[in-house]
Write a structure and sequence with these properties.
The chain is mainly alpha-helical and 156 residues long. Helix content is 70%, strand content 0%. This is LAS1-like protein.
Length: 156
């Protein structure tokens, strides 16, 4: 008999919902840190196999928190850039099927990822100079909105 059951790393629906609420508590950094810690526990519990949206949310919020505590340092820019690059690549790479590689932009268009984030990823990866801290933080906020609408709220 085939089963449609999914194995997940959270204990129950309430834990998942609470983690979402913690992560998106932009008014309370301590709650966001609790959400990140819980995602890290899930990652450990699952052997590193988390839904990409969950891991990306935690990575982006962690990078954003670092930027808020750092004094606009280069390492902070690098951290945010890496989180954004991994976010865009993670969602576009899983659609790379077939013999020939497709452009990141064409895949992003198919999944509804904003063009601006793809451009920001490209600039972070290939430009001689990283985008400004303000631009990167704005990119994180756009990415988090996309994740909230496309994953978190869609699951509720």
């Amino acid at each position: 008999m085939a089963s449609n059951a999914r194995v997940v790393c959270w204990s129950n629906r309430e834990e998942w919902t609470q983690t979402y609420e913690y992560l998106y508590s932009f008014h309370d950094i301590s709650l966001q840190r609790r959400g990140i810690a819980r995602v890290l526990a899930w990652k450990s519990r699952s052997g590193g196999k988390l839904p990409l949206a969950v891991e990306s949310t935690a990575n982006l919020i962690s990078a954003l928190l670092e930027s808020q505590t750092a004094q606009y340092s280069y390492s902070s820019q690098m951290t945010i850039s890496m989180a954004l690059v991994r976010f865009v690549n993670g969602f576009t790479d899983k659609s790379q099927k077939g013999v020939y590689a497709r452009s990141v932009q064409s895949i992003a268009d198919e999944i509804g990822l904003p063009d601006w984030l793809v451009d920001l990823r490209h600039e972070s990866t290939h430009a001689a100079k990283l985008p400004s801290q303000q631009t990167l933080c704005a990119g994180v906020k756009v990415a988090l909105d996309w994740l909230e609408e496309g994953y978190w709220k869609a699951q509720m």
